[in-house]
Amino acid sequence: MDRFERVFISVNRWVLIVLLAAMAMIIFANVGLRYLTSQSIEWAEEVARHLMIWVTFLGAGLVLRYGGHLAIDNLQDALPNKIAIFLRAIVALLLLGFFGFMVWYGYLYVQRAQFQVTAATQISFAYIYAAMPVGGVLLIVHWFLIMRDYLSERKFASDEHFDSTASASL
Amino acid sequence: MSASIILLLTTCGFLAIGVPVAFSLGLSTLAAIVLGTDFPLFVLLKETFSGIDSFPLMAVPFFILAAELMSGGSLTEVLLKFAAQFVGHKRGGLGYTNVGALTFFSGISGSALADAAGPGSMMIKMMDKAGYDRSYAAALTAATAIVGPIIPPSIIMIIYALQDESVSVGKLFVAGLIPGVVIAAGMCVVNWKISMKRSYRGVGERPGWREMVATSFKAIPALLLPILILGGMRAGWFTPTEASVVAVFYALVCGKWIYRTLEWKAVPDILARSALLTASVLIIIGLSNAFAWVLTIEGVPQKLAEWMIAQNFSAFTFLIAVNIFLLIFGIFIEPLPGVMVLVPILAPVAAKLGIDPIHFAMIVIYNLTLGMITPPVGGLLFVTSNVSRVPLNDLVRELKPFLIAHGVILLLITFIPALSTWLPRVLGFK
Predict the structure, then answer these.
(1) CA–CA separation, B357 vs B351, rounded Å?
(2) Are the Cβ atoms of B275 and A50 closer than 8 angstroms?
(3) Cβ distance B285 to B47 under 8 Å?
(4) Which of B53, B110, B379 is nearest residue A169 as measured by Cβ atoms?
């Protein structure tokens, strides 16, 4: 793994850690305060919801890297290797197309929404909707980093802390 | 061509060639909006965001995090010992221990995969050492892990309650308790039969009562978690989402100060893993919300519902048809997108036919979860095969008697509504 890849992954990972920890602490503080002082934090629910949106889109790229987006591979496995590689090339292009759509339309959507503000915190919706184009860019970078192994043998990056088979199917 | 037909055809195509489920839903929604409607593409983004932007949905990341924090430490071992002391010395004892440990662990985790990957993988190793066939141990684990989403907390139940407004999370959680115990009992019966046939021996003696008390005492904090969640919701102390965040901090306190196996330096890893699991679940929720929107603008759920009601099905025929349909559907589709797409269509019909929404929810959830162990495609099969290093074919061969048992239990749950509706009523859940 080269330097860029290492730093990129580590930053992506730490951002997720901080966002999820913040979500949990905000909501817990809110419940605690309500019982101790019978007052609650007005913005708690809204901020936590918006953090969750960011976790979703910033996490999607890393999930892709570890092969955690569940797919049905039976057809690829049943076909001769050459045709399977061809199918994977189509999958790769389709995904790039969709990620590109997320970036481009996500950006337009942010521009459209910039003058609307959220109910409790009165910040521009642009800061929330930006999660989609930013997440799209991350997805594209992660996809290019693993694409070669994916195309040749459907191999994803491994991670000792994240079992890819355990995601998305409950 | 109508947008819904484009939607369904393209989804099947994308799924077949191996596009991940989440992006198959997204791409086909994109195709359907462009080719089949006059709506601007922004609607896909709008619906995706509104699918994720939900406070009740936040219980999902928090329950994932709580289970990860709890299972990080020696808690799994504590639960294994607790289950083993009652049955370990009997014939087939480790099999019963496996069922027991997974069932107790279900009270902490909300997913079948967490059960199989955590206590399940430990039990498979122990059973293998004690002379059980490894593939049998793996099959028992996969079949029993189904209780994960049936016994509260349950991630799929949280999502179900978002799709059907007549069902509350608290009521659904409690409704799962009896079916969960019935499933565990069913797996024990299979284990009894097979242990007799293959004479799997028990391990050790029954421990003395002094030791049993000590072991049970240690297991109390873990066993209390589901009671805390359900009790707190029943008493009106907190909403499901708040209950889930209370569970997070309860798990933290247990791991750090009671079991003392959780180290601060492990917490970032746990958070990162939970965030990734969250992202993989929520991206499907968001995009399938957009997918389902395409169906609604053409009135597909209403039309299907009207058609089904016009057939004059009795509740009995309807339930049989739903079971067959869901079992076939579940072979290919995971529970999560299944609930997102099918519940808005099926639940109103069931309600019109006079089926209790809680009862119907239990049927749908059990059915779709069973799809995770029906070959050839099943998340639970892959995970169990992975952690046990038992080839998929051997696992599937050993799974047959368990699938038959699940079939029988499915019929029981389908035709005895009281199994699901009695407990929430008695305990006064709304």
Answers:
(1) 6
(2) no
(3) no
(4) B379
HSE value, Cβ hemisphere, 13 Å, CA-based, for B8: 7
pLDDT of residue A160: 65
**Nearest-CA distance from A148 to chain B in Å?**
16
pLDDT tens digits for B141-156?
A: 999 999 999 999 999 9
- Give bridge partners of residue B99 from the DSSP assignment: none
CB contact under 8 A, A105 and B42: yes
Residue A106 distance to chain B (closest CA, Å): 7
Q: What pTM value is reported for the model? A: 0.92
**CA-to-CA separations, B93 to A140, B16, B136, B194, B317, in angstroms, rounded:** 51, 43, 14, 12, 41
Contact call for A95 and B19, based on CB within 8 A:
yes
**Which residue among A76, A98, A167 places its CB closest to the CB of B277?**
A167
| Neighbour tally for B56: CB within 10 Å | 16
Residue-by-residue pLDDT tens, chain A, 170 positions: 789 999 999 999 999 999 999 999 999 999 999 888 888 899 999 999 999 999 999 999 999 999 888 888 889 989 999 999 999 999 999 999 999 999 999 999 999 999 999 988 899 999 999 999 999 999 999 999 999 999 998 888 877 666 655 544 45
Nearest to A59 among B54, B276, B286 (CB): B276
Find the mean pLDDT for residues B362-390.
Answer: 89
A169 to B279: CB separation less than 8 angstroms, yes or no: no
Q: State ipTM.
A: 0.94
Pairwise CA distance, residues B98 & B122, whole Å: 9
Closest in A24, A56, A88 to B283, CB measured:
A56
* Terminal alpha carbon distance of chain B: 44
Contact B276 A166 (CB under 8 A): no
Contacts of A16 in chain B (CB under 8 A): 271-272, 275-276, 279
Return the amino acid letter for B285: I
Residue B301 preceded by cis peptide, ω within 30: no
